Known about the structure:
The complex is a heterodimer.
Chain A: H1 8-21, E1 46-48, H2 58-62, E2 68-74, E3 80-88, H3 97-101, E4 107-109, E5 124-125, H4 144-149
Antiparallel strand pairs in A: 1-4, 2-3, 3-5
Chain B: H1 2-5, H2 10-15, H3 24-57, H4 73-82, H5 94-110, H6 129-137, H7 140-150, H8 154-185, H9 190-195, H10 201-204, H11 206-219, H12 231-234, H13 244-268, H14 280-301, H15 307-335, H16 341-362
Helix pairs in contact in B: 3-13, 3-14, 5-7, 5-13, 7-8, 8-11, 8-15, 11-15, 13-14, 15-16
Amino acid sequence: MKFDRYGKGIAKGMVLTLKHFFRRPITTQYPEQRLNVSRRIRGNQLILDTNACNACSACSRACPVNCLTIVTSRDENKKLKLDKFEQDIGICIGCGLCVEACPIKSLFMSCDYEKSAYSRKSFILTREDLAPSEKEVPSGYFSPENEAKLPKQTLLIDR
Amino acid sequence: MLSIFNLHTGSQAAVLPPDWPGNFWFHMLVFIAILFVFVILGVMAFIYIERRILGRFQIRIGPNRTGPFGIIQPVADTIKILIKEDIIPHNADGLLHLLAPAIAFIPALLIFAVIPLQDGAALADLNIGILYIVAISSVGTVGILMAGWASNNKYGLLGAMRVIAEVVSYEIPLALSIIGVVLLTGNLSMSSIVASQNIPFILLQPLGFIIYFVAALAEINRTPFDLLDAESEIVAGFNIEYSGIKFALFYLTEYSEALAISAIISTIYLGGWRGPLLPPVLWLLIKMIAVFIVIIWIRSTLPRIRIDHVMAFAWKCLLPLALINLLITGLQVITLSDISQWVIVAINFVVAAVLILLWSRFYRLTGNKLSGDKIEV
Lengths: 159, 377
């Protein structure tokens, strides 16, 4: 005689949900609480190191959707200089090819992922917007040096 | 009508304050007001409790933004649902569509007439209290059938038919398990059931309690027996064509039935308002909330059962067990009336365990034909 249909499964399930009851909730209450994103995140915008940039326009050529507008000119030493560098993040697909194309590693993806706005015009970011700042931190995408500086990603499975 | 409500027993006069106006109509109006407010506030509290506790069972937080800890959330939901547009579908039976929510809700409200909030404090302490509850609680099903029929919607009718089948089946083990309590008490009145519980009847009637609990879950259509609004199969069941204030009434019905079942279980199995230290009303509330939390716990754990399994469970498992429980209780009342109740408690727990184990051997689902699972014998 085998007894296995007396509600053992129900009891097991009830114990499992009871254990869940005393666990810490997984929910992150977003605007107040944030998780650390992946250290190699390809965020919503680029970050340009203007001092290092040699205005070669490789990033613009690599862009599959032409969201980068670059105007360059030659100065008195016949050296290329950057007159205009604009990124339209409304068009950008975040593929990261521009970052990979940069020969001197002066272009990075940002860690920022909160770029919603009310008008399409405000999506066009100029050189000043693309400068690194407190909010715009270069991500570790294609850049192990930056990756080492960033905090580790929060994994929900650890909580 | 008057003669029904005049059946006050003596216990009421003993506890009510001496300056309490003796007028029957005054008593009735005050208690109707108290019970109505109790039900409405209780339903709101239960919705809040359910959403928060269910959230915790699912490792979520639950609503916590509206007011401190989200306690205004049910109020906000109520306001939102009351100002929504009330739609009557094309080709629907307008009058039935309008009447159905009221007919479903009123019986759920009427149950509270006989629940003693404390000693003697009930709207009508009927001497047939528990019979009245069993009778009145199945009337609400008519409202659900009306809703499903009047909606002119196949899912609505399907949901309604499922409810009828379910309620008709589960009514029998429900009533039979209550008879066990009535045998122990020797009285149908709710206040004398509470008065005779020196040991809560959950200990004297463990099997009866389990049967009653399961059957009550089916009666109020909670998970795992929520076939009437199985979202994955029949969208929302009987209330698919309802919106606005009528839908709110159905929602109110669902939760006031849960409130009523919690109150009935607390009263007939957990000792009702009896308890040390705290005031009686508070004890009743604590027990009701505890029962409701168990209901939520079950909801968070068990998946929905298929309709033929639900039926098989009622007729092949609960009904025979309830009959055996009734037989055993009757024998105990006749033969073992003079030995200590704690011995009977021990005997009954052993009997319950043995019966459940035995029935796990006997109980088969639809002869293994519909279920398709091969069971090793």
